[in-house]
Specification:
single chain, mainly alpha, Cd81 Antigen, Extracellular Domain, Chain: A, two-stranded antiparallel ribbon
Length: 216
């Protein structure tokens, strides 16, 4: 059940419309940074393997097989080690993920402002960011006045003044998007880690109990 929940959360994060709209963008030959998906794929793998290992543990307990329970325990230790490694990786890279996406956005924004022809897709990339995150412009002076002089790049409001008053910068929105998603990944990882610790303890207790009972 825990493996199924983790797998479901990971698949939801993987196919979330906001992240997929942004991370599948391409600016010329440059692909949007998709480091964020590394953590998601690890969660998907852990969830799927947990489901398989869970069946292994249940079958081993029903059959009272020390071999299956030992294999179950070994698989849990490996999964736990992978999860700890993924957690450390996520903690180290949590700020870098948003930073890379902001740099990608800034490059697209510069190209959108400088573009003189439709051959440059910077404008399309920027508009996708703006419409997906409901924001307009980077976190600087140019970004602050963008809704006034480049309303073609920003989500449409009733008036230019309203567009200016209600628009928030995209750097802040990108930070909010990825911090929220990484927060969910962190919660899922902690829940899985706690469940795994209990599973390892109980599987060893059961294995020892089966071994001791076989003596009599």
């Amino acid at each position: 059940l825990a493996g199924g929940i983790i797998l479901g959360v990971a698949l939801w994060l993987r196919h979330d419309s906001q992240t997929t709209n942004i991370l599948y963008l391409q600016l010329g030959d440059k692909q949007a940074p998709n480091t964020f998906y590394v953590g998601i794929y690890i969660l998907i793998a852990v969830g799927a393997v947990m489901m398989f290992v869970g069946f292994l543990g249940c079958y081993g307990a029903i059959q009272e097989s020390q071999c299956l329970l030992g294999t179950f325990f070994t698989c849990l230790v490996i999964l736990f080690a992978c999860e700890v490694a993924a957690g450390i990786w996520g903690f180290v890279n949590k700020d870098q993920i948003a930073k890379d996406v902001k740099q990608f956005y800034d490059q697209a924004f510069q190209q959108a402002l400088m573009a003189e022809s439709e051959t440059n897709n910077g404008k399309a990339v920027v508009k996708t960011f703006h419409e997906t995150l409901d924001c307009c412009g980077p976190d600087n002076a140019i970004g602050a006045i963008t809704p006034l002089w480049r309303d073609d790049l920003c989500p449409k409001k009733d008036s230019i003044l309203k567009n200016f008053m209600e628009s928030s910068n995209c750097h802040k929105k990108i930070d909010e998007l990825f911090s929220g998603k990484l927060y969910l990944i962190g919660i899922a990882a902690i829940v899985v880690a706690v469940i795994m610790i209990f599973e390892m303890i109980l599987s060893m207790v059961l294995c020892c109990g089966i071994r001791n009972s076989s003596v009599y």
